[in-house]
Amino acid sequence: MPPPSLIILISLFSVLYLSSSQPPPLPRTLIDCGATANSTINGLQWIPDTGYITSGTSKNLTIPVLDRTLSTVRSFPLQNNLHRKFCYVVRVFRGAKYMIRSTYFYGGINGNDPLPVFDQIVDGTLWSVVNTTGDYSDGMASYYEGVFLARGKTMSFCIAANSYTESDPFISALEFVILGNSLYNSTDFKQVGLSLVARHSFGRNEVIRYPDDQFDRVWEPFGEPVIPPSKNVSVSGIWNLPPSKIFQTEFPMGRSSLRELRWPPVPLPNSMYYIALYFADDHNSSTGGSRMIDVSINGVPYYKNLSLTPAGAAVFASKWPLSGPTTVALSPASGSSVDPLINGGEVFELIALGERTLTRDVIVLEALKSSLQNVPLDWYGDPCMPLQYSWTGITCSEGPRIRVVTLNLTGMGLSGSLPPSIARLTALADIWLGNNTLSGSIPDLSSLKMLETLHLEDNRFTGEIPLSLGNIKGLRELFLQNNNLTGQIPNNLLKPGLNLRTSGNQFLAPPPS
């Protein structure tokens, strides 16, 4: 079997003195969920979440925490909300790559109820299941990190209760950080997102974050601390811009001819992964020899004759299959007399992006939402996707073009009016809006060629029945009873095959004979 496709970048960078100046933060939105005031933590500005979400309840934890962003959460009611999503909507720069990180610390907010297990969704794509049980039992918060492309002017991040959820879902913090163009740039972000599996600084005993990593990526320690003589290196030539600190420590790989490292430290599901490994050797010539290594993953050659120099190197694969335990093997290349080493590594699972609701339908639904009052709380994020979490009252088609086919908001306590743009939902087969307090005139719906049922009964619609309704050939049911309609009933509605109900209105005269 040939080795998997491998995209290699060898980045060389000159030996420079490490600047002590703090890198300026890039555009970022740091949301302290449930908080009521701004705060500054480690030089970064956090803001309350009230401007990004309209549902859920702010709660204060009653146990002490080390990180202030963990002291509050936003909680979402499970009761009557199974398979409903609650969405944060954040303004972004279209076409930019964003690191999205969600953080969860339970803190006993649901009393004696079990910790909730639930889903998290980005722009209609099911990202992952959130299960904080293991971390919380160890007294730790859980965080999930991914990289996604902003395909519009806003991005949505949603929490959703699934069939395994037993108590109210929640979230502690949410971050959107723009990444530089060069980061992870071999990935086709129009097709996939990246979900972090592991990111480690080898041979280090502390976490590396901002300001050492300008994007505030979390580099966790791995292995026993090993601090070689001082290194002066620059990382400006490596596309993923790892922080210089990861090259100040290393993980030397023993004395045998083949050195194996069980990394990432957890078994992986069968999937495709992005892998990046980082190396730098500030080699002292007095020890003699050069450091050249061969790298393999689970016995498959990853890179051969990699020369480790003070300039450093990054080797990455954008699509590599992994399953179960993973072993990274480093061995001296032919002719090399110096033991291998490794400084850092990242692994992401590739997340196939789901389809999205047709943009035209989204625009119409947003206009409808603006024209109505008391719309369902889950009318945020993508209207149709994921299909199991479509908006309340919305049914959508499947396939490559996701369209809205049913609008059923019967008895939802809605008020307001129907915008004329509703006629642009041209895949609609059923509109059921009865038993609300909708008012205004009935718009021209003749462009809805697929429409079969139109239920507007028990509302407060005024004006005349549009003559154009009689031009919808497939219309089988037209329920208009108990409104404030006037004028005459159009003659073209009095035809076989149409169930027409008009009682309880104020028509001036019976329909023409």
Automatic annotation (TrEMBL):
Keywords: Leucine-rich repeat, Membrane, Repeat, Signal, Transmembrane, Transmembrane helix. Residues 31-349 form the Malectin-like domain. Residues 360-397 form the Leucine-rich repeat-containing N-terminal plant-type domain. Its main location: membrane. It comes from the Eukaryota. Coiled coil: none annotated. Residues 1-21 form the signal peptide. One of its GO terms (cellular component) is membrane. It is found in: Membrane. It is a single-pass membrane protein. This is Probable LRR receptor-like serine/threonine-protein kinase At1g67720.
